[in-house]
Amino acid sequence: MVSNSDPTGAPAPSSPLVSLSNAGVQRDGAWLVRGVDLAVRPGEIVTLIGPNGSGKSTTAKMALGILSPDEGRAERRPDVRVAYVPQKVMIDWTLPLTVERFLSLTARADPKDARAALAATGISHLRSAEVRNLSGGEFQRALLARAMCRKPDLLVLDEPVQGVDYTGEIALYDLIKRIRDDLGCGVLLISHDLHVVMAATDHVICLNGHVCCQGAPVAVASSAEYRRLFGGRASDTLAVYEHHHDHTHLPDGRVRHADGTVTDHCHPHDTAQDHGAEGATTSEEKTRHAG
Amino acid sequence: MLDDFFVRALVAGIGVAAVAGPLGCFVVWRRLAYFGDTLSHAALLGVGLALLLQVNVTLAVFAVSAGVSLALLALQRRASLSSDALLGLLSHSALALGLVALAFMTWVRFDLMGLLFGDILAVSVHDIALVYGGGVVVLVVLAWIWRPLFAATVNQELAEAEGLEPERANIVFMLLMAGVIAIAMKIVGVLLITAMLIIPAATARRFASGPEQMAVLAALFGIVSVVGGLFASLEWDTPSGPSIVVAALALFLASLSPLASWITRALRRSAGPQSEVMHR
Ligand SMILES: Nc1ncnc2c1ncn2[C@@H]1O[C@H](COP(=O)(O)OP(=O)(O)O)[C@@H](O)[C@H]1O
Ligand SMILES: [Mg+2]
Question: How many CB atoms lie within 10 A of CB B256?
Answer without folding.
Answer: 11
